[in-house]
Amino acid sequence: MKSRPITPIDIKRPSTSIKKIRKPEKPVDALRSTTKQNEQYAATIAELETQRNTYMDALDDLNQRIIKDGDLIAGLRDRFQELLQGKKEKSSRSNQDNLEEEIKLSKEAEKAIIAFDSQHPSAYLAENPHILMDITSGTSNYFSEVAMNIESSITLGEYLVTSMEQLNSISRCLKAYESLRQCVRLNNFLETATETTKKVLQSEGTTILSSDLVSKDFHTVISTNTYYFSLDKDKSFPGRCINLKQSLIVRDPINDKLYSPSIDQILNPTNKTLLVSPIWDIGVLYIPQTSPFKKSFSRAEVLITEFYCQLLAPLLAAHIHYSHSIQLANHRRALQIFKTNLVPKNSLKALIPFLYQTIQECIYANDVEMYIINDDNFSKVTNEGKVDTNQYKLNGLPHYISEIKSPHVIDRVNERTPNYVQEVDEWALGNCFLGMPIISNGKVIAVLELSGKNGTNKFTQWDVDFVSVIVNCLALILPRCLQVFDKERDENIIREAAMFSEIVSEYTYSNMLSTNDICEKISYDVFKLIPCEYLLIATKYDNTIKTVITLKNGEKSDVLFINPEFLSMSLKANYSILSRDFTEVKDFRPMREIEYKEIVAVSRIYNDYCYAIVCLNTMDKLRNFTVVDKHMLEVLAQLCITSKVNNSKIHEKETIEMENLSFQNSLEVFKTVLYKEKQLQSLLLVFSEMINAHSFCLIEKNKSKNNFSILLSSPNVKICPPIPLDDVLSAMILSQPSHHIFIENINETGLDKSKFVELFKQFSSLVISPISTDQTYFIIFVTDNKFASNFNVLFDLYTPMITILLNIFLKTNHTDMIRKANQLKIDELSFYDHDLTSKSFSIEKYNDQQIIELLLRVFESLEINNVLCSKTPKIVKFLEEVSKLYKNNKYHNWNHAVETVQLCYSIVKRGKMSPRAINPMQTTALILACLLHDICHDGTSNEYHIKAKSSLYHVFGDDCPLENSSLTRSVRLLKSQPFFVCINNEEFWLFFKECLLATDIKKYEETIQNYQQCARNFDSKNLIHSVSLAKLVITVANISNVVRPFSQAQQVAENLETETDETNEKLRTLGIKEQTFVYWKCESDELPNIEMKFIQEVATPLIKAITGSFPELNDLNTSLEETKRNWQQIISNLE
Q1: Are the C-beta atoms of 207 and 267 separated by less than 8 Å?
Q2: How many Å apart are CA 232 and CA 247, to the nearest integer?
Q3: Which of 94, 224, 463, 995 sees the fewest Cβ atoms within 10 Å?
Q4: Does 408 appear as a known binding residue?
Q5: Which of the residue ranges 947-956, 1075-1084, 1088-1097, 1117-1126 would you say has the lowest mean pLDDT?
């Protein structure tokens, strides 16, 4: 090796130039200038001397290195010769120490062994890769230079050809390993490893595929974009090489049966010869041959690649686990922030922007959509948190997801994707897709969809798990937000109805007579009520059709947007349609250059006159045409008829005035009832008086149940169960669903046997009128005289108004609850205090109404009504609502809740705890916690949800998920009650939360310890002391069966055992180990032994703790001992 001669340093001299003539300096200034120049010269000389010394030192180092390299070369030649001959010479002690130290520093390096043929001439080197470090005696920094000086005449066989290329490759592998060890805990390890690998293997197309512990997919990073691939062993080259655990060389990938377009088009777009090598089973090295001078890969290149993969494997494994931990922590942190910020979001306007922002920030989704699922359609929620009134049919991906009730992931949406519907799913076309149902109370209420992911090609299992937790949280929040939205929508409907009433009231008899054609004014009023792109009013007289006025965006226009055939059809008779599917509109044909989204059209006919009003495409993006709009147009079309009739002088003036007066009267009635609490009922009562009817009832046809149910009635109508469709009068209604049915004498028609007759008091005549075009809702009017002669005229006037209020009524009232609450009338409570405090209390003795009475007595006795500021009817409605939230489980059901309340009441009353130990507010919280502690309980256990990783587990974690779920639903229920303002304080919520969560029986020891610490110096003014007592009381009340008569105790224990068996069956179905019957250890699985263990370990300490402070309750110990003796007797009989 020749050293480069050192050349003297070129010192730049100042260039000569023409000097300027300047004034001589003063002696003092000249002296200072000279001194400064001398200092600069001295500094320059010192700098030059330093440089000279540096170069001399470098020259000495170079000479020493040449000598040392010469010795190394000689040593290497001898060692390589020994390796070729298969001899194994013992290393020097120093080299051996260095080797052991290197292995100790990196245990992963022990796995870096290449699986070569056992007959390979360099097997020893293959089995001990670190010998290369040993050979250089720790001088790994110089190994590359040493390799370059090995003579080419020395060969090492197939594995290690003695060329500087091979030696350099091995050296680069080891250096890369040392370098990458420092990067394992960096987020960009994969990118760094890829770039390093390209240099090591000298291939610019190299890609590292790394596995993921959660999704099991493999991913790589290309130009800052992350690509995920599912590696099937029979459908891809990387999958096959991992399955075979060996490298593959593919010379024509695109024509190979393992060619995968989704992988190879991205990683090897030019179809180069391919080398694929496994990195254990956690990664793949994917190397296209990018050299223009090579068509394939040599055996030596394959072996070097496999050697490098073994070095890289432990580092990649360590990074995968590190990356998994970091991502898991980030997701948990993000979800915690989401849950915290989600609680106050009580409207769609607040929820949706927050939800979309969270998903886009945490998952990097490009687009997010939510669809609200209804019974027969679904609607999209806008980014502003408003429900788009444009309703879709039940099809497309949202409908499919709502049907399967599980997550749905698509790598790339295209027109051939199953269940794809262009109208619904076009927004996701060409992107990856993730859809998730939002399920509340077993019903899909919405679907959340994500499309496109920034920086990657698909949604992973990480994304699915993250969104699963989010939708489980939304299942608790979204129903409340939808209720708020419905309320706001109903208020908008009322406002629109009020504006409609104001507008129509301007059309009086006088101004309609003085105006030759009032249609123009009506058209502008229609646009004011229903802003639309196109509006048309047309008329027909003597078979001649004429367009009266056309508006485009509120201005006059002559554009033709409706084909004549449709207009002619609609003007033949009274007609109305509201549709967003124009294929269903009879005789409709689209015109050119018009975009058709939705249409509402009505027509009204009188003698030879007919008027039609047609509106096309609403201008409000957040509002579509509604049924209310259609009914408003019916009234306005009738105005056109009235105006024409008035001006034609067909009728006498008195008759015209009478008709207009009736119309004005109907508007005044409508305006009057619009702001009453019971709008529809008020209007129907007024209308009944006008037509001389003494009673009415509004009925609804239930298609699924094949009956008619009563929605609303006058006060004098009896309450009865639904009437079947095969009833004689039901059959008559269904035979003429779109016409009035008049029956003058019910007794002469044979219809007096109908169930409908039982609804009313004595009557002779009735009329049944349809009030909806879908033949679902009907009104029955009855009278004991005759109906008014102008019934048809009045009904035509009032039907649109009745229909408007019917829509409001259906949206704002839960009719089933109202109907049941009306049936329940409690005038006098029949329970006495001794009924409620008895330990022998058995809920099986009482019916539903008596149970409500029992609970009312508890509320009254403890003055809970006063705390809630509520009277009996409101409390009754609340209790009815609570009972419906309990499921029909064997043990965790409504009966269990009532029994818990009863024993809690007995303990509080007989122990004289209120107000001595707990005040009325605290007592209210305690009783409500007993009442609500198991609402919506699914009949399983906390252990089940934890093992099954259910939605409750993802939302609430492993700390009593069932109790936390009940707490969440209870808070939501209490907030919806009118008495909420009376209990909304810190003291109530603290007691309520602590008491309800204490019903988790696993916490019984903690409950006892906390109370015993406070009992020594109990202070009722100390909130902590009062809470500890209340928790003990509810825990004892929750196991009330142990102090009941033994027949009850045994039955309850068997019910709990049955429920546990059903839970275990669910676990077995999921392939999960069964849960234990109880939370404490019991050597036997027989019910009597389990109950005995429960009494000894749990019930006895709890009851002793409470009776120790309240001697009045000592009879609980007696009852417990009796139950214990009975179980012991059963055990003895079994033995």
Answers
A1: yes
A2: 16
A3: 224
A4: no
A5: 1075-1084
What is the DSSP secondary structure assignment for residue 721, as one 8-state letter? P
The token pair that represents 932 in the structure block: 């609500």
Same fold, 32-86+101-343 and 507-647: yes
CA distance 958 to 456: 33
Q: Where do the structural domains in the chain lie, given as residue ranges?
A: 32-86+101-343, 346-479, 507-647, 676-820, 824-1133
Q: Find out whether the peptide bond into 8 is cis, omega within 30 degrees of 0.
A: no
Write down the CATH superfamily of domain 346-479: GAF domain (3.30.450.40)
Place of tokens 């990118």: 191
Q: Residue 19: its pLDDT value, please?
A: 40
CB-based burial label for 620 (10 Å; 0-12, 13-18, 19+): exposed
Tell me the pLDDT band of 1077, cut-offs 50, 70 and 90: very low
Closest alpha carbon to 808 in 633, 972, 683: 683
Q: Measure the CA angle with vertex 271, ends 269 and 272; round to 5°.
A: 115
Looking at residue 24, what DSSP letter applies? P
| Sequence-separated (6 or more) residues with CB below 8 Å from residue 567 | 538, 545, 612, 614
Yes or no: domain 824-1133 corresponds to CATH 3.40.50.720: no
Structure confidence at residue 693 (pLDDT): 86
Quick one: which of 434, 432, 429, 456 has its CA closest to 359?
Answer: 434
**Per-residue tokens: 434:** 């993730």
Rounded to the nearest 10 degrees, the angle between the axes of helix 894-910 and helix 1023-1038 is 130
* 514 token code pair: 């003085």
Alpha carbons 549 and 352: distance in angstroms, whole number = 42
421-446 tens-digit pLDDT: 988 999 999 999 999 999 887 788 99
> Which pair of tokens denotes residue 779?
């009104």
Distances (CA, A) of 333 to 338, 340, 357, 575, 946: 9, 11, 16, 59, 20
532-541: strand order across its sheet = 555-556, 544-552, 532-541, 609-618, 599-606, 575-579
Say if CB 431 and CB 451 are below 8 A apart. yes
The reply to whether CATH 3.30.450.40 applies to domain 676-820 is: yes
Please tell me the distance from the alpha carbon of residue 1029 to that of residue 494, in angstroms, as a whole number. Answer: 51
The single-letter code of the amino acid at 440 is S
Taking 50 as the threshold, does the pLDDT of residue 679 lie above it?
A: yes
| Annotated binding residue 896 | yes
Query: Residues 6 or more apart from 294 whose CB is under 8 A from it?
Result: none
Peptide bond between residue 721 and the one before it cis (omega within 30 degrees of 0): no
pLDDT score at 27:
53
- pTM beyond cutoff 0.90: no
Please provide the distance, in angstroms rounded to a whole number, between the alpha carbons at the two ends of the chain.
97
Q: Shortest CA distance to 624 belongs to which of 741, 727, 532, 729?
A: 532
Q: pLDDT for 607-620, tens place per residue?
A: 777 889 999 988 87
Q: What is the largest CA-CA distance in the chain?
A: 146
DSSP state, residue 698:
E
Query: What is d(CA 406, CA 415) in angstroms, rounded to the nearest whole number?
Result: 22
Kindly report the CATH number that applies to the domain delimited by 32-86+101-343: 3.30.450.40
Q: CB-hemisphere CA count at 13 Å for 360?
A: 11
Topology annotation, domain 507-647: Beta-Lactamase (3.30.450)
Confidence check: pLDDT of 537 > 60: yes
| 934 carries a ligand binding annotation | yes
Copy the structure tokens of residue 321.
């686990």
Tell me the C-alpha distance between 695 and 714, whole Å: 6
| Residue 156 per-residue DSSP state | B
Q: What mean pLDDT do residues 857-877 have? A: 83
**Distance between CA 355 and CA 360 in Å, rounded?**
9
Catalytic residue among 408, 631, 892, 937: 892
892 is known as an active-site residue: yes
Task: Name the DSSP letter for residue 25.
Answer: P
For residue 693, give both structure tokens.
């009817």
Please check whether residue 345 is in contact with residue 334, taking contact to mean a CB–CB distance below 8 angstroms.
Answer: no
